[in-house]
Amino acid sequence: MNKGRKKIYLAPYYHENHWMLSIIDIIDHNQGYWCDPIGNSEIPMFKTLLNTSIRVYGYEGGTRKSSKVPQWMKLDCARQPGINECGYYIMRYMLEIVTSPHSMRSIDEIQAL
Protein backbone atom coordinates (compact mmCIF):
# COMPACT_ATOMS: atom_id res chain seq x y z
CA MET A 1 0.00 0.00 0.00
CA ASN A 2 1.19 3.52 -0.63
CA LYS A 3 1.82 6.08 2.09
CA GLY A 4 -1.29 8.09 1.16
CA ARG A 5 -4.79 6.90 1.87
CA LYS A 6 -4.91 3.20 2.48
CA LYS A 7 -6.90 0.94 0.20
CA ILE A 8 -7.85 -1.51 2.92
CA TYR A 9 -7.92 -1.58 6.69
CA LEU A 10 -7.42 -4.71 8.78
CA ALA A 11 -9.26 -4.76 12.09
CA PRO A 12 -8.58 -7.80 14.30
CA TYR A 13 -11.33 -8.34 16.83
CA TYR A 14 -11.05 -10.26 20.11
CA HIS A 15 -14.36 -11.22 21.69
CA GLU A 16 -15.07 -13.84 24.35
CA ASN A 17 -11.64 -15.52 24.05
CA HIS A 18 -11.81 -15.67 20.25
CA TRP A 19 -10.05 -13.74 17.46
CA MET A 20 -11.77 -12.71 14.22
CA LEU A 21 -10.67 -10.36 11.44
CA SER A 22 -12.46 -7.59 9.58
CA ILE A 23 -11.14 -6.41 6.23
CA ILE A 24 -12.52 -3.03 5.21
CA ASP A 25 -12.27 -1.26 1.85
CA ILE A 26 -13.97 2.08 2.40
CA ILE A 27 -12.17 4.05 -0.29
CA ASP A 28 -12.99 2.22 -3.50
CA HIS A 29 -15.69 -0.36 -3.01
CA ASN A 30 -17.37 0.23 0.35
CA GLN A 31 -17.05 -3.46 1.03
CA GLY A 32 -16.40 -5.10 4.38
CA TYR A 33 -15.40 -8.70 4.94
CA TRP A 34 -14.94 -10.67 8.11
CA CYS A 35 -13.11 -13.93 8.70
CA ASP A 36 -13.86 -16.27 11.54
CA PRO A 37 -11.60 -19.33 11.86
CA ILE A 38 -14.34 -21.19 13.77
CA GLY A 39 -16.95 -20.22 11.22
CA ASN A 40 -19.97 -19.85 13.46
CA SER A 41 -19.53 -16.46 15.14
CA GLU A 42 -21.59 -13.36 14.46
CA ILE A 43 -20.16 -9.89 15.03
CA PRO A 44 -23.15 -7.50 15.05
CA MET A 45 -21.77 -5.35 17.90
CA PHE A 46 -18.39 -5.05 16.19
CA LYS A 47 -20.01 -4.24 12.84
CA THR A 48 -21.97 -1.45 14.52
CA LEU A 49 -18.76 -0.08 16.07
CA LEU A 50 -16.93 -0.22 12.74
CA ASN A 51 -19.83 1.36 10.84
CA THR A 52 -19.94 4.25 13.33
CA SER A 53 -16.17 4.71 13.08
CA ILE A 54 -16.36 4.77 9.29
CA ARG A 55 -19.09 7.43 9.37
CA VAL A 56 -16.99 9.58 11.73
CA TYR A 57 -13.87 9.04 9.60
CA GLY A 58 -15.75 10.19 6.50
CA TYR A 59 -17.18 13.21 8.30
CA GLU A 60 -13.86 14.34 9.74
CA GLY A 61 -11.95 13.49 6.57
CA GLY A 62 -14.28 15.69 4.54
CA THR A 63 -15.21 13.00 2.05
CA ARG A 64 -18.69 11.69 1.58
CA LYS A 65 -17.53 8.65 -0.37
CA SER A 66 -15.80 7.08 2.63
CA SER A 67 -18.65 7.86 5.00
CA LYS A 68 -20.82 5.14 3.48
CA VAL A 69 -20.85 2.08 5.65
CA PRO A 70 -19.60 -1.08 3.94
CA GLN A 71 -21.71 -3.96 2.79
CA TRP A 72 -20.58 -6.80 5.06
CA MET A 73 -19.83 -10.26 3.74
CA LYS A 74 -18.56 -13.26 5.69
CA LEU A 75 -15.63 -14.96 3.99
CA ASP A 76 -15.33 -18.70 3.85
CA CYS A 77 -11.90 -18.77 5.50
CA ALA A 78 -9.71 -21.70 6.46
CA ARG A 79 -10.99 -23.31 9.66
CA GLN A 80 -8.94 -23.88 12.76
CA PRO A 81 -8.72 -27.56 13.77
CA GLY A 82 -8.98 -27.01 17.53
CA ILE A 83 -10.10 -24.36 19.98
CA ASN A 84 -6.86 -22.44 20.56
CA GLU A 85 -5.58 -21.60 17.07
CA CYS A 86 -7.74 -18.56 16.20
CA GLY A 87 -4.96 -16.01 16.85
CA TYR A 88 -2.58 -17.90 14.57
CA TYR A 89 -5.17 -18.08 11.79
CA ILE A 90 -5.95 -14.36 12.03
CA MET A 91 -2.22 -13.56 11.80
CA ARG A 92 -1.98 -15.84 8.74
CA TYR A 93 -4.92 -14.07 7.09
CA MET A 94 -3.32 -10.67 7.71
CA LEU A 95 0.10 -11.82 6.47
CA GLU A 96 -1.45 -13.20 3.29
CA ILE A 97 -3.34 -9.95 2.67
CA VAL A 98 -0.39 -7.58 3.16
CA THR A 99 2.23 -9.66 1.33
CA SER A 100 0.18 -10.68 -1.70
CA PRO A 101 -1.12 -8.41 -4.44
CA HIS A 102 -4.78 -9.08 -3.65
CA SER A 103 -7.41 -6.77 -4.94
CA MET A 104 -10.51 -6.43 -2.83
CA ARG A 105 -12.40 -8.23 -5.57
CA SER A 106 -10.25 -11.32 -5.10
CA ILE A 107 -9.79 -11.09 -1.33
CA ASP A 108 -12.09 -14.05 -0.77
CA GLU A 109 -9.32 -16.26 -2.16
CA ILE A 110 -7.86 -16.16 1.35
CA GLN A 111 -9.93 -19.25 2.05
CA ALA A 112 -7.27 -21.23 0.16
CA LEU A 113 -4.65 -20.62 2.89
Automatic annotation (TrEMBL):
Gene3D superfamilies: Adenoviral Proteinase, Chain A. InterPro entries: Papain-like_cys_pep_sf. It comes from the Eukaryota. This is Ubiquitin-like protease family profile domain-containing protein. It comes from Saponaria officinalis (Common soapwort).
